[in-house]
TrEMBL record:
Annotated protein name in UniProt: Glucan endo-1,3-beta-D-glucosidase
Superkingdom of source: Eukaryota
InterPro entries registered for this protein in UniProt: GH, Glyco_hydro_17, Glyco_hydro_17_plant
Keyword terms: Glycosidase, Hydrolase
Length: 397
């Protein structure tokens, strides 16, 4: 099967619950190499194996984690907001009003913008502040540069602006940013050290959002594993996250999976699956594609020796145009189902409880590249003018 991908513009009180994973049916477990998130990339066949049925796998001993919220953990639903790719940019005060109207608990941006950070000052919305990929070599090679960055671009805005996470770059595992990957962890260490220098380490965590292309095996969820070529880097990065109480962040797009795989029922991706379409993996039952993709990531983290790290989904969404499946109704069903599922506190079969996700995106962006597909400008829940395409309340009220 193929899976499309795109790119976007420490907990305490954990409990571990061991269980024996029974045998289950699967077929081809061979890996198909990744392509760029800006192309219709190939991925492993695992995401479709249960739909086709096949050979038996041996029983495995795995751990299922139950994560209690720590002070660093964010739980709920927020939005990604791209600042530079609209021909008719919405004034920042209107953006903040839109975030408040939607009842988003957080907003994630991809690069520094002082005017936006000022606009969201005094508002009860957490901010994930992005650092551009191009800054990674500078920050990796010079701690003083990292300290200067925090001094100039973060410290002046806190605590009035509720910056909770700094993301150093975006999807450095993808070809368009791969040149920055070797220096990523060093840059993250310097940024965290600078955050510590200003006494902000309890308030602000440091991480990096990977694309789902970081996965080498993604189905069945219990077999989830990272690409071998990235494991040395990930071992270092995951240890850094564990040491600093920061979340692992990954971008997941069920739309891009079903768009090229007619074998996967659309209803399974839209939280509308019938009982016959539910998938079983040992003792776990999957009622939707998103849970399966999240749990494959959790299994991959466990395989590297980090079963208890908090996980946040940096990007997830459904477009409303440019593809037969990209309709307003499908987007409404997906995002409504996603938010309802998050706020139910059921979590995933592998990790019950709340999880933080950032919907891509708040607004349409008409200047986005359409290399991956003509749907790229239409990920917004709102139009460029801030008009809602469909109702979406990111709270349980």
């Amino acid at each position: 099967m193929t899976m499309l991908r795109r790119s976007g513009g420490s907990e305490s009180g954990r409990c571990l619950r061991p269980f024996l994973l029974p045998r289950w049916l699967a077929v081809d477990l061979s890996f198909i190499s990744e392509q760029s998130s800006r192309s219709l990339g190939q991925v492993d066949r695992h995401m479709i194996s249960l739909f086709l049925s096949g050979t038996m796998l041996a029983a495995m001993m795995l751990m299922s984690t139950c994560v209690e919220p720590g002070h660093a953990a964010q739980h709920g639903a927020g939005f990604n907001f791209g600042i530079d790719l609209s021909s008719r940019p919405l004034p920042f005060d209107r953006v903040v009003e839109t975030l408040q109207t939607s009842k988003a608990n957080a907003v994630k941006i991809f690069r520094h913008n002082a005017k936006f950070l000022q606009a969201v000052s005094g508002v009860d919305i957490h901010v994930v502040a992005g650092i551009a990929n191009e800054q990674i070599p500078i920050l990796a090679n010079d701690y003083e540069a990292a300290k200067g960055y925090i001094s100039d671009n973060i410290k002046p805005f806190v605590p009035a602006t509720k910056i909770k996470i700094i993301v150093v770059g975006n999807e450095a595992n993808e070809p368009y940013a791969l040149k920055f990957l070797p220096q990523l962890v060093a840059a993250m260490r310097h940024v965290h050290r600078a955050v510590q220098h200003f006494g902000l380490q309890e308030q602000i965590k440091v991480t990096h959002p990977f694309s789902f292309g970081i996965m080498g095996t993604s189905y069945p969820p219990s077999a989830g594993a990272f690409q071998d070529k990235h494991k040395p880097m990930l071992g270092e990065l995951l240890q850094f996250l564990a040491d600093t109480g920061s979340p692992f962040m990954i971008n997941i797009y069920p739309f891009l999976t079903v768009a090229q795989n007619a074998e996967i029922p659309l209803s399974y991706a839209l939280y509308q699956a019938t009982p016959e379409q539910h998938q079983e993996d040992g003792q776990h039952k999957y009622t939707n594609l998103m849970d399966a993709m999240v749990d494959s990531t959790l299994a991959a983290m466990e395989r590297e020796g980090f079963p208890n790290l908090h996980l946040e989904v940096g990007e997830v969404g459904w477009p409303t145009g440019g593809h037969a499946l990209a309709t307003v109704e499908n987007a409404r069903l997906f995002n409504t189902g996603l938010v309802k599922h998050i706020l139910s506190k059921k979590g995933t079969p592998r990790r019950p409880g709340w999880m933080q996700m950032y919907i891509f995106a708040l607004l349409d962006e008409d200047q986005k590249s359409t290399d991956i597909g003509p749907f790229e400008p239409f990920w917004g829940v709102y139009t460029m003018e801030g008009v809602p395409k469909y109702p979406l309340d990111l709270t349980s009220s």
